[in-house]
Amino acid sequence: MSARQGKRPLGVAVLGTAFMGRAHSSAWRNVGAVFRDVPELRMRVLCGSDAERTRAAADALGWHEASTDWRSVVERDDIDVVDVCTPGHLHSEMAIAALEAGKHVLVEKPLALDAAEAERMVAAAERAPGVAMLGFNYRRVPALALARRLIADGRIGEVRSIRAAYLQDWLVDPEAPMTWRLRAETAGSGALGDLGSHVIDQVRSLTGDEVVGVRGALRTFQPERPGPAGPERVSVDDAAWALLDLARGATASIEVSRVAAGRKNALELEVHGTDGAIAFDLERLNELTVTSGRDGWPARVLVTEAHHPLLEGWWPPGHVLGWDSTFTAQAADLLRAIAAGAPPEPSFADGLAVQRVLDAVGRSDAAGGARIDLSETDQGHDDRAETTR
Amino acid sequence: MSARQGKRPLGVAVLGTAFMGRAHSSAWRNVGAVFRDVPELRMRVLCGSDAERTRAAADALGWHEASTDWRSVVERDDIDVVDVCTPGHLHSEMAIAALEAGKHVLVEKPLALDAAEAERMVAAAERAPGVAMLGFNYRRVPALALARRLIADGRIGEVRSIRAAYLQDWLVDPEAPMTWRLRAETAGSGALGDLGSHVIDQVRSLTGDEVVGVRGALRTFQPERPGPAGPERVSVDDAAWALLDLARGATASIEVSRVAAGRKNALELEVHGTDGAIAFDLERLNELTVTSGRDGWPARVLVTEAHHPLLEGWWPPGHVLGWDSTFTAQAADLLRAIAAGAPPEPSFADGLAVQRVLDAVGRSDAAGGARIDLSETDQGHDDRAETTR
Amino acid sequence: MSARQGKRPLGVAVLGTAFMGRAHSSAWRNVGAVFRDVPELRMRVLCGSDAERTRAAADALGWHEASTDWRSVVERDDIDVVDVCTPGHLHSEMAIAALEAGKHVLVEKPLALDAAEAERMVAAAERAPGVAMLGFNYRRVPALALARRLIADGRIGEVRSIRAAYLQDWLVDPEAPMTWRLRAETAGSGALGDLGSHVIDQVRSLTGDEVVGVRGALRTFQPERPGPAGPERVSVDDAAWALLDLARGATASIEVSRVAAGRKNALELEVHGTDGAIAFDLERLNELTVTSGRDGWPARVLVTEAHHPLLEGWWPPGHVLGWDSTFTAQAADLLRAIAAGAPPEPSFADGLAVQRVLDAVGRSDAAGGARIDLSETDQGHDDRAETTR
Amino acid sequence: MSARQGKRPLGVAVLGTAFMGRAHSSAWRNVGAVFRDVPELRMRVLCGSDAERTRAAADALGWHEASTDWRSVVERDDIDVVDVCTPGHLHSEMAIAALEAGKHVLVEKPLALDAAEAERMVAAAERAPGVAMLGFNYRRVPALALARRLIADGRIGEVRSIRAAYLQDWLVDPEAPMTWRLRAETAGSGALGDLGSHVIDQVRSLTGDEVVGVRGALRTFQPERPGPAGPERVSVDDAAWALLDLARGATASIEVSRVAAGRKNALELEVHGTDGAIAFDLERLNELTVTSGRDGWPARVLVTEAHHPLLEGWWPPGHVLGWDSTFTAQAADLLRAIAAGAPPEPSFADGLAVQRVLDAVGRSDAAGGARIDLSETDQGHDDRAETTR
């Protein structure tokens, strides 16, 4: 892994200055203060498309330099880590370029707009010397990390069902205006890709299992929305549903929506096993509800104890974390993977697996709900992985 | 409607002495004390299969007589109302006999074991002079009645999605023993019919809309359970999922399970509209969460005010009701329907509509999840109703 | 105990036809159906002040007779149990008359208007052959009975503090009209006696301990309210606070209010011990939150299991009980005490103990908050009890 | 206000490297990225007592320099803001020195160990050119800032009562070891000063009113705790209670405890007015429960909207903030006060007012609960303020 040179601080560049660029900048600015065991870094360059705004953002967010030329930035010798926070259709080109330049790469989710593009990115990552990580930040919610640990430790027995929803309300108003997020050509899909990708990643992360069968349905409740020059057609889903079969026998039901009044950012997960259950709601990020045993009762755990996952560097018990803390912990794990030369988690391959499920939901919907079998696809991936390593 | 003779108190008979017989007896014992506007009644006969146990139950539950001969009871002149609380496979014969004897009939849900049997019962009800009511008692949960009123009044706008679950835990233990409820020949289906029927009735009741398309899936997690002479095969579902298309464009997602650790009797309903939302959990029977407007926040309404539906006869605000109160209110509505000569709600036709959806879930599962179109079936029902009335 | 004659069913009379008369009638009507182990009873007479209304109430509520002459009723040979549900200023006279006539007596709380009157009632109960029980119905909330059991079993260690509130909102409106409940001469006190008596009874019941010191404060936020002929002076408290020292070292803080917007009937109790905690809210009557151990997390227990206290006669797990169920269980316990010839719980002496605390709150407030020592008073009571038995 | 020189970035020094030093460092590191309207700053010096540890902390937390000589630091020309995060007994000396050196000063709460010391600090602040701010960080919880705004706007009418608690569990174990926090000479008081100061500040902040009467009680449940050489005497309170009279007629009840099992950091506030109520729990920092109007129901507001207070610089709606965000917002408000030359909030005078209430709780307890009148004291303060300005 040639990207890391001795004890020199790692040089970081972030591509993208919008919402995600801000969130990732916060992570780079704080990771060393929270987690003392990570390699030293320098916030070298923030890249954006508009010179003036990028300069202002770089100043405010703590970057040494601003740039509008991402291609030269990913080639620079003093850059070791390239963090891709641009819109989804730019992920592939930027990430592959950075990987080919020998850099470590973090890509904000979703990995790509479709499975074919994701496959190319996985292939690039397999060839490259750098660490390639995908930014499903909710894996770094301490409560969800605790849930994963409890499940892995068998604390709720064998998982039988997962009930998941990700509900938001920002499109509930029929007069909410048209945006690029509502066109298939620019966004790929709607609630499915934006929210469903997080849900599917959590299903895989919490269970450690693979999706082998998919039945899905998509709905666009509001077929037109006001554009600057009159009504425009919405070409992505407002809401989506899926039923997933997992390889070891569990079933997951999923609902995602951008038209759920009263729900701002409600990623709700409920996992039932043969010997207990866990439940979570992102709007109460610091809490996990744990039912231990067949006769147990749901206990509300405030996941802020030092012995809980991801919490060693924060505050004393009871002092809750915010949404941005997940990016800080994600950055720490990337830095640790770089230091250890170990594969990061989630990987590009995880992103591809999620993308395949998303694609299958769309195909199932087009086929009237019929089940799409993914078991062959996954075996194929495993086979290829074996031969190329 | 000849079954009602002047001002003589109505004579009531309950068929069945088990759980439901007890619950309905409680209703008949208390309805006159709570609701002052209902016709007077007499608790005349409790029918059961075992003479001694029926006698003891009749004494304890407030009945004048006990009987083991239901056929003669439903013929008696002093019986005006026959309340069928026996296991499902006896509903059809008893209800039809009572209707043909000119009685008013209340049948505990489910109406029948399949749609064909339900159709015969609907036909019998259409021919008979008496009132024929189906016992979906959750329609008489004040919070759900309030939800229905709010939705009907347009308080959450046009309904777009319903998210429903009915989760119990009594089969979570793989060693839970075999019972008749786990065999298709005696129970019809598993969680689907037992729990799903309530959920589907609520979807119809809350929206006032019909199900026109069904995609479904069934799962039996525990294929064998211990019987007296060794392992026996479970032939019904432990859990079921369905996605329902409603005629006016809403989508309902449903999950029912008897293997959900930590959930005792959790009927959860969440309805999202273009202008708000409501949410309910049967474990908190006296509460309704109401989100008013697109920018509203979920408010917890304690549904115990005198102006809330079904509450005029109970206690002052803040004094919560129990599960059994739903049967008392159901009995009151039956008595009022009898007094008014008006069709009761829910009717046998409602039971048939639910049964058709349940059947369609099973057919969709058998077909790999493909969508079953019920729009023709429903039109057929409406046509027949028009020609026979 | 002469009041019980062989196996003849016990004849019951209720005095009072208003809210409490209705609630107690419900209990007598249902107790035999729910609890199979209790002596048989007959609902003989309902007594009220208005002949016509009492007749109508008796018919509706299931009584054989109506009467407006309570004095003759409590003398009747066919009456074994007299249940006093009249306003507080009538309790003493009626209860003492019934006790002197050899009857078993149940008195709705509060026992009396002041400690002196309560002392006379305790003395009458000690002299009389019948069972004398006080109606603090919340002792029969299953969740509170479970809390008491858990605490008695040492499951939360040694109790250190109790945090209690009983909050209602019916006087929050400054224009809410004057009633007898807002005059000291008819009601004794305001929120203190009405709500505080329940809270103090729970403190004693949950801990099994005695109050030995009291600091209190009373507030009347709305000094005048509209009467029929203009503004009238409110002479009782709208809200009260107290800090109680218990004999074994715990401290209880109490707040009661009738002007707490948004709270309908919120009796909230929280008990902290050296090894855990419990919490309860009457608006969620079927739930108890239990924290087990110093490192435990609050678990939400749905108190509807057959093995939970008071639940053997009701419904399967998860089928919640209503507020009225507490009166049914109270009636059962009275009947059991009669059958066993055992002292009931709570006794008149419990009522007196509560009254002494209530009185002390008023005295402390008058003294600017200074601590009132009740340890001598309680010893006095114990001494007298010893000498008179 | 001579401490601010033109457009040069403000030089900041933090005194203290422990828990609060870390939290305040986080604020200085992030304030410019979140709030774009604040003056530029430089994180110049971190001061601690141990050279090596201070050096390491400075590196990790983003400081240019480390120092063990706070006296020289507060004199440096390139330091404009001195942020005192040391233990309470050092606050007075450090803050006064910095103020006398012409610096802007932020002091972490509590202002001082007693009212006399606090008075000297207030006097120094009144004499000095710099801005003097006190660090009650919970004033910058968005939900509490929203509560304050709603109350100030009359949205719940006239405030009548405040019910507040701050419950923690870290001393619930009787074997928890002795520390300096449990000795009066080093800590002043126990739960009272540590937790009660926050509660009292909130009472004043939310109502905008002054405390004019105090009744209090203190308890030490565990009089001895294990020290290195055997049991040692605990000389501060484990728990405290107070009843506060506010000048405009409201009453506040307060309970604070470090021995409340199951509660990690539960600052619970409930404010009832003539026309509504608000409720808050710090363990759910991003939520405010709002009851609007006399007939309103408690609505759960997720306080993450851009139009909510303090939220303009953070994330989109539904993306929750953590505890540390309060320090970032506090730093922003200090910087804005410096830029505007305006008095900051809370001021040292606010800290003195809180300290006087804390002292009065202790005096009331010593006097058996008798009410301590603070109205004269407060008038005195106002008079002095008038004469010295």
Automatic annotation (TrEMBL), chains A, B, C, D:
User: Does the UniProt entry include the keyword Glycoprotein?
Assistant: no
Keywords tagged on the record: NAD, Oxidoreductase
Residue ranges occupied by any GFO/IDH/MocA-like oxidoreductase domain in the UniProt entry: 146-278
Query: Bias category Basic and acidic residues: which stretches?
Result: 378-389
Task: Supply the InterPro entries for this chain.
Answer: Gfo/Idh/MocA-like_OxRdtase_N (IPR000683), Gfo/Idh/MocA_oxidrdct_glycsds (IPR050463), GFO_IDH_MocA-like_dom (IPR055170), NAD(P)-bd_dom_sf (IPR036291)
One GO molecular function term of this record is: oxidoreductase activity
Write down the superkingdom of origin. Answer: Bacteria
Q: Which portions of the sequence form the region Disordered?
A: 368-389
Q: Which residues constitute the signal peptide according to the record?
A: none
Cite a single Pfam family from the UniProt record. Answer: GFO_IDH_MocA_C3
Question: Which residues are in the Gfo/Idh/MocA-like oxidoreductase N-terminal domain?
Answer: 11-136
Q: What is this protein called?
A: Dehydrogenase
